Amino acid sequence: MDIIKGLIQSSQTFPGPGRGRYIICLFHDSCFMRMLIGGEWSDAVDGRRTDVLNPSDLSLVDTVPAARGEDVNAAVDAAKDAGDTWSKMPARERGRILWQATAMVRDQADGLANLLTREQGKPLVESRGEVLGFANVLEYHASICGGMHGKTLELQGIGDGLTLREPIGVCGAIIPWNMPVLIMAWKTAPALVTGNTLVLKPSSEAPLCCLSLAGILQSAGVPPGVLNMVTGPGVAVGEPLAAHPDVRKLSFTGASSTGKRVATIAAPTLKRLTLELGGSDPAIVCADADLERTADGIVAARFYNCGQACTSLKRLYVMDEIADELASLIAEKASALRMGDGLQEGVRLGPLINRNQRDAMTSYLDDLVDRGAEVLCGGHPPQTEGHFFPATVVDRADIGSDALREEVFGPILPMVRVDDLDEALEMSNEGPYGLGASIWTKDLATVRRCVGEFRSGMVWVNLHLRVPVEAPFGGIGDSGLGRENGTESLDSYLEWKTVVLG
């Protein structure tokens, strides 16, 4: 009993979509999560619910409504009804509301992080960083809201003109389970600050913290109907949202195959699309690189979030003359990552999200070994209830291996030895993806060449995976369409109107 009292005293409370206020602590107290539609916390029309499980031990964290098309329609109608009031509010007033939400999120960061770890599995330190990242994204968009204006024009032979920037209207967003809180911010902040209303579908496997954040935004002053949250499976919720004719812009983050289907479903309504899809990011390590720093950076970039990030480092190409030393350093540092329940102190590698992801990692590893690769650390998963897989480093990977051709969403790092930069660049640019890439070197000429030749939307130099909110982010090829973050993120949420003065 004393332990429970201590947990309660150290917990955070915040407004939530259930009954009253939540206490977030290290044991489960049913929250009875609901959807947010038109400012009301609602169940699905047919009352169905779906379980949210902790991937560390498969225990029940909570349940959420399993919505259907009727619920999507209700949310879109609510967003339409709220549009005029929200769009006519001064941009700086909308920004002020985001500022208010930022302060509330930071105040409740520990409790929100605890909830995120329980539903998604990532270590608590990563969850807290993601929650603070949500606040940072809101703060950034609040800070730039005053710059959303048109321009005056001198029209030759006519006179003067001007342009206006107007909100699109109802927007939709579909987000994944791997970084649910941060990606919710990437879609919510620009949509709302530009005067649009939003219907957002979180992943069925990690919806709880997102619903709680929606409650905080509403408490901060976002009017009813401006932000709506609908939970449920992709076919039942995501597809009706993508097809809805009143949704004029849709932003999707997820697998490339799913993104292509979303684009097909959305096409008949000619809505705008932002698609942030899969990636198989390469990294090239040159002989002059600082190997200690490089090894630290590579381990951090590959094994963050148990390797479940679209732009994590997934393929490593190393100059042969330094390969032995670098491989040893990386294996040593990866082996030191403590694996376990993300709520436990010192854990740096949580579980994968589900059994399918774990089985996929086993398949990738078997294929690498069958093709002659050497496992330096890690290997097959432990026999536990949770979906754990150790940090695994594989040297001398065959270039035909599945792990080098597909998006590996888990903690396996295949390493390929190369003779020179020409060979490394050729291998790096193979495949359909083009999200991110990195070069590790001290030579500026090498950096310039790689920046010019990498086929990717983002390039890092002597680091990887860092995605600052001030910089536009997105990919090419099968990695998607459009950009998120930066001032560029506002463009896809605003329409240009040209006025010619006679």
Topology diagram in text:
Elements: H1 2-9, E1 12-15, E2 21-24, E3 35-37, E4 40-42, E5 49-53, E6 60-65, H2 69-88, H3 91-107, H4 109-120, H5 124-144, E7 152-155, E8 159-167, E9 170-174, H6 180-193, E10 197-201, H7 208-220, E11 227-229, H8 234-243, E12 249-253, H9 256-266, E13 272-276, E14 281-285, H10 291-303, E15 313-319, H11 320-335, H12 355-370, E16 374-377, E17 392-395, E18 412-418, H13 421-428, E19 433-434, E20 436-440, H14 444-453, E21 458-461, E22 476-477, E23 480-481, H15 488-491, E24 494-501
Strand content: 15-25%
Tally of helical segments:
15
- List the domain count as a whole number: 2
What top-tier CATH class of the largest domain fits best?
A: Alpha Beta
Query: In percent, how helical is the residue content?
Result: 25-40%
Label the structural class. Answer: alpha/beta
What Rg do the Cα atoms give?
A: 23 Å
Within the CATH hierarchy, at the fold level, what is the topology of the largest domain? Aldehyde Dehydrogenase, Chain A, domain 1
Low-pLDDT stretches are 1-31
Distance between the termini: 79 Å
CATH superfamily of the largest domain: Aldehyde Dehydrogenase, Chain A, domain 1
Per the principal axes of the C-alpha atoms, what is the gross shape?
Answer: globular
CATH architect. name of the largest domain: 3-Layer(aba) Sandwich
Largest sheet: 7 strands, mixed
In a nutshell, what does this entry contain?
The chain has 502 residues and is α/β, with parallel strands linked by helices. The protein is built from 15 helices and 24 strands.
